[in-house]
Amino acid sequence: MRIMLFLLVLPIASVLTACGDECYNLDSDCDPHVQDPHYSISKPIVKMDGAGNAITIWNLSYSKEVTPGSFKSKDYVNFALFSPGSGWGKQTSLAAYNGKSVSSPIFSIDKTGNGIAIWRVSSDVINAAYTPGAGWSAPTILLSHDTIARYVDIDVAMNDSGQAFAVVYDAGNHVVYAIPYLQGQGWIMDNIESIAATHGLDDLSVAINSNGHVVVSWVEYDQDLKRSNLAVTRYVPNSGWDATELVASTNKPGTNHRVAIDSIGNIVIEWADYTTLWGINYSPYSGWGAAVKIHTATKYIQEYDLVMNTNGTVASVWLDDSGVIWFTQCSPDTGWSNSQAIYSAVDTKYTPRVAIDNSGNIIVLWRQYSTTNSFNNQLLLAQLYLVGYGWNTPQHINYDNYEISDLSIAMNYSGDAVAIWDQIFTTCSSSQCYIDVQLWGNNFSSDVGWSTASLIGKSQLK
C-alpha cells in the first residue's frame, strides 16, 4: 500500500470582529474566540455508506451583541455530501433557527446511503431523512414539548437495512422513549417503548445490528448511594424489550461511555471513572460477563473511543494523563488484549478517534499541539494499522496548523474512510481580529492512502 499526503493552500476568508491592540499578541489575555460576533461549529459528525459516499452534518451558531446586554443569535443545521469521484459538495443549510437553543445533530446511515438525523430545538426533537438522489426530507417534529415534560438527551442508530431507533430521555418523567423507524415507512409512532429510569441519567446511547437487535445504555447516578451505574436494556425482534439491567457500578462519578453491537448480538461497552478505563461484554449465549479493567492511569483517563465491526472485532483508543495514545482490541473469542502505547511524543494531544473495517484494519485520529504550544498551531494526525503489518508512522492530514476543536472519522467495510474537523483561523492586526470557523475534510482510500485536505464549509453560509 502507498500512503500519500498533499497539503492544499487556499486563501482564508474571514469574519471581521472588533478587538483591541492587545490581540496582535496571541499570547495576551485577549481571546479572539469570544469577540463579537461569535461563530462556532459544534460537534460535526460524518458517516459513510458501503460505496464510499459520505455525509457530514453539523450545527453552526452565530451570536452578536446588538445593544449592551442584548444578543442576537441564529443557528444553522448544515450538511455537505462527499462522493469518491468528485469529493466534497457545497455546504448547504438544512434548517435555520433564530434565537432558539439548538443541539448538535446526530446522524446515522445505512449501507446504501439512506440516513436519519435528529436534533433538539428548545424542547422539541426534530428529525429529517436523507435519500440518495432525492436529498433531505423537510425537517419535522418527532416529539413535541407538548407531549414530553423535558428532553435532556437524544441518540439515533440505523443498521445496514435502513431500520433505525431513536432514543429520547424525558427528564421530567425519568423515562427513555425508544422510537422505531423503517425505511420506506418512516417512524412507527404506535410502537414507542417507554423505558423507566430509576435515577437521573446521562449519556444516552443506542446501537443496532443488521438483524434488528438493539441495545440502549446510559449512565445514571444514585444520589442515595453516591454511585454511578451503567444501565442497559436490549431489544430482540419477536421477543421485545428486556428489563433494564445495571451491569456495572462504581463509587466514582462516571463519565460518558461507548456501546457497540455486532451482527450476531455480541455487545461491548466501555466507560471510564476518572482513573480507570473499563470494559464489559455481552454474549447472546452466556449473557453479561464481569467488568474488565482495561487500563489504570496515574491521575485520570482524559478521552477515549471505541468501535466494533460486524465480525465482532473491537478497536479502542484512549488518552491518559501521561499524554500517551493507547490502544487495545477485543474479540468474542479471545477477549481483551493487553494495552499498547502507539504514540507517545511529548506534544499535548486531544480527542482520539478510531475507525475499523471488516478486515480489522484500523485508523486512529487525534489532534495535538505542535512544539510551540500556540493555540493556533495544531496538527491532525492519522495512524494506520494494517492486519499483518502493524502500525504505520502517523501522518499530518490537516490544512496548515490552525486550532482544531472537534473531529470525526467514518470507515466503511472495505477500508475507505473520511475524516472531518473544524479549524479556527485567527488573524490579528494592531486594531482588529479576523476569525473564520471552517469545516475541513480529508478522505482515505485503501489503494492510495490519504488525499488532500479540502474546505467543506465556513462561518458565512456562502
Task: Please explain how this structure is put together.
With 462 residues, the protein is mostly beta strands. The protein has no helices and 41 strands. Strands 1, 37, 38, 39, 40 and 41 form a 6-stranded antiparallel sheet that branches. A hairpin with a 3-residue loop joins strand 34 and strand 35 (390-391). It is globular. The relative contact order is 0.14. Residues 1-35 have low confidence and may be disordered.
How is the secondary structure organized here?
Layout: E1 15-18, E2 38-48, E3 54-67, E4 70-83, E5 87-88, E6 92-98, E7 106-109, E8 115-121, E9 124-131, E10 135-136, E11 140-143, E12 151-158, E13 164-170, E14 175-182, E15 186-187, E16 193-196, E17 201-208, E18 214-222, E19 227-236, E20 240-241, E21 245-250, E22 257-261, E23 267-272, E24 276-283, E25 287-288, E26 292-296, E27 301-308, E28 314-320, E29 325-331, E30 335-336, E31 340-343, E32 349-356, E33 362-369, E34 378-386, E35 390-391, E36 395-396, E37 403-411, E38 417-428, E39 432-445, E40 449-450, E41 454-458
Antiparallel strand pairs: 1-39, 2-3, 3-4, 4-5, 4-6, 7-8, 8-9, 9-10, 9-11, 12-13, 13-14, 14-15, 14-16, 17-18, 18-19, 19-20, 19-21, 22-23, 23-24, 24-25, 24-26, 27-28, 28-29, 29-30, 29-31, 32-33, 33-34, 34-35, 34-36, 37-38, 38-39, 39-40, 39-41
